[in-house]
């Protein structure tokens, strides 16, 4: 049975630690004390803690920021004695395999079944059961040259939609409407995309209702969302041509 050691103290580290425990897989965790750079004693303490954490491990998951990974493996070269895996979406690191979870992680931990459904994206040539043994998750391969584009698309799909929804919720509240009124609409829009992709679009763009579109644009005069509305009109028109 694989024994995992997790490096990091952020959301992903917390979720992975919780998931591995739900799977009854051995797991230990380490996070570098932010004060460790103040003196040599604290640096030594961090090293000793890390050695103890990874000693029984077969796999070490580097769940730190992308920028911190080169520094971590430079400062602690003994990590290369273990099977190293990172979860960065856009970057590659020599000697470290990549398995990116295609999921958004909030401050709240999830149920076991939700974690089991998280797809992992791995580079072609890597076996998922060797990178993350014991995990029953779906997994897909990607060519190394496509990784940066893949991650950019994830950001567009997940984060841009959140920005738009938050902007609309704020404007609802500015008109005296509860943001909660949006929830059934957003939930159904998401479910429709999953169930009926390609046929889920509704409203004036779907109908080609130019009069309503113009009325929408007039109503957004002076609002920065007007330019986004126009940009989506152009993008949709180009996609349909």
Can you tag this structure with a few keywords?
241 residues; alpha/beta; seven-stranded mixed β-sheet; 10 helices
Describe this structure in words.
With 241 residues, this protein is an alpha/beta fold. Helix content is 47%, strand content 12%. It contains ten helices and seven strands. It has helices at residues 11-22, 40-54, 69-75, 112-116, 128-131, 147-174, 183-195, 204-207, 210-219, 225-240; strands spanning 4-7, 27-30, 59-62, 83-86, 97-101, 120-123, 139-142. The longest helix has 28 residues, at 147-174. It is elongated, with a radius of gyration of 23 Å.
Order of helices and strands: EHEHEHEEHEHEHHHHH
Number of strands: 7
End-to-end Cα distance: 53 Å
What is the radius of gyration computed over CA atoms, rounded to a whole number of angstroms? Answer: 23 Å
**How are strands sequenced across the largest beta sheet?**
2-1-3-4-5-6-7
Which runs of at least 5 residues are low in confidence (pLDDT < 50)? 34-41
The helix fraction, in percent, is 40-55%
Q: Kindly state the mean pLDDT as a whole number?
A: 90
Write down the overall geometry.
elongated
Strand content: 5-15%
